[in-house]
Design brief:
This protein is an alpha+beta fold and 352 residues long. Helices cover 23% and strands 37% of the residues.
Length: 352
Amino acid sequence: MIFRSSPLLFALPVIAMLVSCGNNKHEKIAVAPINVKVLSMSNGNNIEQEISYNGTVKESKSITLAFQVSGNITQINVDKGEQVKKGQLLASVDETVYRNQYNAQLAQQKLARDNYNRIAEVFKKGSIAEVKLVEAKSHLDQAVSIARATYQNIAHTKLYAPTASYVGEKMAEAGDLAAPGSPIFKLVKLEEVNIIVPVPEAEINAIKKGQVAIVKIAALTNRSFKGKIEEVGVVADGPSHSYNVKVRLSNGDGQLKPGMVANVFFADNLTKAIADSSVVRIPLIALQVDEQNNNFVYVVDKEGNKAERKKVKRGELMNDVVVISDGLLPSDRVIISGYQKITSGTVVKIVQ
């Protein structure tokens, strides 16, 4: 027996699907908004806080100490990091050889003096020519000079702190052999410190000696210090094409240590560079480029719940902030965080 399939049997599932779709056509799938942070163009001066440079704390002055004579180091009296006073004895080398040389020269000096005194007595009696007296005086003076020079070797067997400072480096230990000119200590002055700041070549001409700088130290819970630019470099670092700027800070409490990382804000420079309130500035990270090489940003629409893409023209770049010369309005709110997850029309939620 042959069974034939009825067209109605095939139609029933299709009808059921259509009915089901018809029942759900008014249901909408909920889309979770993307959290974003925005920068209001009506308050553009807030962007000033983002223009900063990284720097490093360095001592304001360093002194390298070395013995001027050779010998075995007999004592090292200080350690690295220790504070020392002016005139404090830091280290010594064995003076035995130099003391013996000095004693020998003192004996020669005494012999020359006795000889001069005898000749002077004979000269007073008229029994000797004056030239003999002059010759004896010359020998005495020479012996005295040699003895004094030899004594300097004894003085040079000791190293004293030339000023109040800290021991930044200790390059020898007791028992080592000291060589003339070989560094033993590096002393650093910390009453004032320098902040060395590499500045890109495109921005160095906007920075001048004497400008005010605000320095924040992360290691000191972002404590702020106020200083001035002491020096603006004129020779660029080869690989980075940056110029070193030196900022001088007072360090009366000694909290600033060489090697600490600093964030530096050149306050006067920023005031001059962005004083015009009509200039629109945004963080460089918020500026994007499409496949046609057009610059654009995402802004939040008037209702505050969707992202919109706006084409813009970029202007001058200052560190991590870029000037927008066209395309943004004072009422715009530029998305500066969360832009990686959105496209035009994405539902967004503004967060602080």
